[in-house]
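Researcher: We plan to redesign the surface later, but first we want a full-length starting point. Tokens attached.
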């Protein structure tokens, strides 16, 4: 019996030997991530689930951290592909940005475990993330940022405002996604469907951009004077 099991294990490893094993481990790792979470996930668990020896993953990943980084990179690769598809599907800056932001929220809901790994506290060094992970995360974010800037430019915003606009838009899409994933919608004692909140929140952000820099300056001057953040921001944008 032991010899048969050993032969089966070697056969499984051989079948993945020419590059397929790494992808198989990532795919299975993603599946298990949604079931048990990153903390409980182990190389041994993934290897056993794929049907290879427990030593096999070490040929492709530097421990559990390496596997998690590869899984997160795969998530960013998928998110970027979805965003590129949206960019290619419409030339309308408003529709493009809305769909890109909505896509982020939908991805988070569909891939909860993976999403938490991608955006949450990581086991790798945040200052020096793995090269592949960093490149794919940057590529995905740049697609989003470009959509924000393109829409903003049609509404009279200056290039010096773009970074603030990108981060404001990011805070909305990410905040909405996290509220939904943490089961905080609706709020205590409130009645609200999550899909209605998504539509309204994203549309509100887009409406704010559409109002233009002059309307924004009027509101900003009433709510923020005297604050350090206001003075610092105005230092870079004080003349419109």
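Model: Full-length starting sequence:
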């Amino acid at each position: 019996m032991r010899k048969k099991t050993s032969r089966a294990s070697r056969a499984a490893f051989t079948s993945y030997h020419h590059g397929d094993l790494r992808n198989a481990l990532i795919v299975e790792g993603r599946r298990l991530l949604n079931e048990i979470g990153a903390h409980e996930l182990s190389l041994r668990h993934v290897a056993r689930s794929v049907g290879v020896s427990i030593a096999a993953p070490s040929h492709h990943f530097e421990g559990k951290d390496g596997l998690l980084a590869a899984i997160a990179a795969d998530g960013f690769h998928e998110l970027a592909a979805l965003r590129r598809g949206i960019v290619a599907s419409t030339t309308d800056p408003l529709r493009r940005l809305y769909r890109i932001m909505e896509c982020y929220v939908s991805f988070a809901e569909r891939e909860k475990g993976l999403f938490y790994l991608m955006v949450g506290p990581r086991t790798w060094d945040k200052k020096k993330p793995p090269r592949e992970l960093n490149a794919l995360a940057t590529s995905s974010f740049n697609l989003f940022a470009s959509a924000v800037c393109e829409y903003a430019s049609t509404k009279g915003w200056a290039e010096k405002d773009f970074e603030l606009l990108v981060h404001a838009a990011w805070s909305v899409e990410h905040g909405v996604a996290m509220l939904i994933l943490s089961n905080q919608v609706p709020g205590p004692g409130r009645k609200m469907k999550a899909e209605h909140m998504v539509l309204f929140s994203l549309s509100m952000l887009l409406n704010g951009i559409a109002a233009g820099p002059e309307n924004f300056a009027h509101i900003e001057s009433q709510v923020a004077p005297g604050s350090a953040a206001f003075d610092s921001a105005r230092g870079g944008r004080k003349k419109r």
